[in-house]
Design a protein that fits this description.
124 residues, alpha+beta, Tetrahydropterin Synthase, Chain A, 4-stranded antiparallel β-sheet, two-stranded antiparallel ribbon, 6 strands, 23% helix, 37% strand
Length: 124
């Protein structure tokens, strides 16, 4: 028999600025808005969780990026702040804050536009 998996999905936005650098080219600093969607799965199916509890934990991570210049963050020193690299960093940080919440981050999607998204997902 198939096992039911209970999951929660949260959507938010990060407003920050960045500058792309590749080779000898240095782009202009520009503001950007990324959509971030997180799918969170309970570690057991005993009881439901409050959306607000998980949302607050995810929010602490996302808030730390609001109105920042990504290139200045230690995690982006020597690394281009691409959507893919931002998704990796968010996945790591959000997974950390959810460790003690009886749930885990199953998937994160970071979209740089309505038609361009990058996702990371844990396989079962």
């Amino acid at each position: 028999m198939a096992k039911k998996i209970y999951s929660y999905r949260f959507s938010s936005f990060i407003n920050a600025s960045q500058r792309m650098e590749w080779g000898d080219h240095v782009g202009e600093r520009y503001p950007h808005t990324w959509q971030v969607e997180c799918t969170v799965v309970k570690n057991d199916n005993d009881e439901f969780m409050l959306f607000s509890d998980i949302e607050a934990s995810i929010g602490t991570v996302l808030d730390s990026f609001q109105n920042t210049y990504l290139n200045d963050l230690a995690e982006f020193q020597g690394k281009v702040p691409t959507t893919e690299n931002l998704a990796e960093l968010l996945f790591k940080r959000i997974s950390e804050v959810l460790k003690d919440k009886n749930c885990h981050l199953k998937k994160i999607m970071v979209g740089e536009s309505p038609t361009r998204q990058f996702s990371i997902e844990i396989s079962d």
